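#struct-pred

JT: dropping the chains for the assembly here, can someone run the whole complex?
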Amino acid sequence: DAGVIQSPRHEVTEMGQEVTLRCKPISGHDYLFWYRQTMMRGLELLIYFNNNVPIDDSGMPEDRFSAKMPNASFSTLKIQPSEPRDSAVYFCASSLARGRGGNEQFFGPGTRLTVL
Amino acid sequence: AQSVTQLDSHVSVSEGTPVLLRCNYSSSYSPSLFWYVQHPNKGLQLLLKYTSAATLVKGINGFEAEFKKSETSFHLTKPSAHMSDAAEYFCARTGFGGAQKLVFGQGTRLTINP
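RK: done, full complex below.
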């Protein structure tokens, strides 16, 4: 298995532009998670999905952030408009349901976002 | 509230000496517990997990961790550090009721001195 795939790996954009981050989870996994990592705040859970349905989006910082999962193999995290304080590394992770063998999360390589 | 506390933000050891990274969790029950490692510019990789089986858990790369319920601790150890162990290490736990989301500690940066 290729693991969790994220694209792009690096994104540099200007303040006010729209940014879309993409994630392909491990095939067959039930859950998908979006995290943000910064030096100041550490690793923060933004939102997670179960079987393509958003379960908890309480970590999404504000209305400029939105996430979708149109099917089991693809998810997007969109920031519109972007601001310099959104600069961070964004990780996607996926897992099986606990009753299906485990609840450890498998992480992608991350997208390093820089907003100028 | 559910929380994970990593007691050291930075640990520095010499190559070939033991490693101890400390983690305490808050809980009124036994959650699943995890240790992840993050090398520079990489994603998090699972080192090991505890899910209420054996209290001493062996992971990859010679790491192991011991679950101690009385101390609510899950410390990570390795008998002999290698230069390639230099990385950030995160302890995590599941939420109440076996919730799928994980609560992460703030991380411990491990430096290995030659």
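JT: nice. The two ends of chain A are 36 Å apart (CA to CA). The first strand of chain A starts at residue 5 and ends at 7.
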